[in-house]
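Worked example

This section walks through a single chain of length 401. The input is the sequence exactly as stored; nothing has been trimmed or padded.
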Amino acid sequence: MQFSSGAVPRTPPTLATLVLLSGLSALSMNLFLPSLPNMALYFETDYKVMQLSIALYLLINAILQIVIGPLADKAGRRPVLLWGLALFLLATLGCIYAPNAEIFLVFRMCQAVVVVGMVLSRAAVRDMYDQDQAASMIGYVTMGMAVVPMIGPAIGGILEETLGWKANFWLPFAIGALTLFLTFTDFGETAAKSGKSLVQQFKEYPELLTSPRFWGYSLACAFSSGAFFAYLGGAPFIGTELFGLSAAQVGIYFGAPAVGYFAGNFISGRYSVRIGVNRMVLWGSLLNAFGVALSALLFLAGSGTALSFFGLMTFVGVGNGMVIPNATSGALSVRPHLAATASGLSGAIMLGGGAGLSALAGALLTHETGAMPLLWLMLTTALLAICAIAAVIRRERQLGL
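Given that input, the structure is written out below as tokens.
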């Protein structure tokens, strides 16, 4: 398969291609979740075995983000994207035709290679724009990632009921094929090759890891999104066990942060250039903490309800929609020549921390404790995000930036 042809497009990718690249990764994450029980029956295995398809996917996703960045800084964005998408298509076919659960899980882990779209769409934006404009564009690009988690499981449930579980893999295969075609025809290379070997490229990591500003932006992103990941781990228990909501009701309430995230991304797209990255991250972190703190006060006062709990999570979504694009742009701008490496590393920090917080939130909650352990965990991470961006602002004042 030859992806490097004489017909390589010379223009930067359009916004539609970048949105599709970032959204495909989110779609592959949660589309098939309603099919897990029937998949366990199909493969004649325990439901918990099929649940591994989520945890293993997240793990490989985080590891790949560390590798993809240096690869793309060495070889360019375009070839890494094209090969990654082609491998994703092959892995998806492997999931569809897997004869048993073990082989399915192997191909499911291979599907995580689609994270190239998320990592390199952001890196490409930073290649093309300065820091504040990049934050604005990343906000627009990631708006698609807010919509997909809201509608993905609903679409997956319809496909499961009408066409069976394999339809939830044929759909991302079809969208992946479209994305590959668009990337091939539309995605002109946005960065010069570094000219370094892969080993030399990995040796660039200390340049990022010793930068206080990179850590500040990455941790602001990780802690702010950590509040959301903790919510993902604990909210289903609170909705069903504490408030007695039906699965359908939980599904409706559960989307509150995603609605807020969409709004926060829109705010980032409109105002990041005017207001600046650091202030957008700070205000987003404050909104995140405000929503959680107000919810906690209501529960401490004995007035917490399902509506107040889920409704106030909209602030968490808005805050994250402002923090993530801007903090990501900041992290990628610390060393612009390492944009893809920084994108992968900051993404891995965010995802790895998020996976841990999600598991911790689920473990902390019982009928006796109520919602407070989750709210305390979310508030702690939200406050740490404020501390992280405050450290960046202080550091830039010291450097006279």
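What to look for: Residues 91 and 110 are 6 Å apart (CA to CA).
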